Amino acid sequence: MKPLRLVLATHNHGKRREWQALLEGLPVTLVLPDELGLSELVEETGRTYLENALLKARTLAAASGLPALADDSGLEVEALEGAPGLHSARYILGGDEVRYRALLRALEGVPPERRGARFRCVAALVLPDGREFHTEGVCEGVIQTAPSGEGGFGYDPVFFLPEQGCTMAELSFEAKNRISHRARAAQAMRRVLEQL
């Protein structure tokens, strides 16, 4: 059986690696937009994670003629009324460490019981024939006062998982791919792909 080629709406190789592992065992090959000569980034102008994921997947499906898989995710912090949320990747200019350190400064003095947070991920699959599917995953945790761990990316070093007793960045790659928000959205998307 010939593998299904899916274009993954990201230029982030860490995200691609996660998705490849999450879809392991399925006859699916993930390709990145730049591997197809599609280098332009889709501006995320949606008001929700779903709108952003669909915007990226629709654009790539139309441009490539292939099924397109996109996700949008964010960190929602209770003490910040759900921020940074949709703007997690653009919370502040700079790399991952700059962003999570800005978050820690915003939470200075906030007691542990008000540092609850969740990672949320919405995945969207758009087929060239126009059919659309979407799934969602959530992972609950707490924002620590200092970073810990070398793995993962984004806010993983400050996102503490009480049930695991460690941050997301301290988990093994395999453990993260069982419990993360993206893993949960991907597990649901696997079922969609299996049916297709």
Question: Which key terms come to mind for this protein?
Answer:
196 residues; alpha+beta; Maf protein; eight-stranded mixed beta sheet; globular
Please describe the topology of this protein:
Layout: E1 4-8, H1 13-22, E2 28-31, H2 49-64, E3 68-77, E4 84-85, H3 96-106, E5 116-126, E6 132-143, E7 159-161, E8 166-167, H4 173-179, H5 181-195
Could you characterize what this model shows?
The chain is of the alpha+beta class and 196 residues long. The protein has a single domain, classed as Alpha-Beta Complex (Maf protein), CATH 3.90.950.10. The protein is built from 5 helices and 8 strands, in the order βαβαββαββββαα. Strands 1, 2, 3, 4, 5, 6, 7 and 8 form an 8-stranded mixed sheet that branches. A hairpin with a 6-residue loop joins β3 (68-77) and β4. α4 (173-179) packs across α5. The chain is globular, with a radius of gyration of 17 Å. The model has no long low-confidence stretch (mean pLDDT 92).
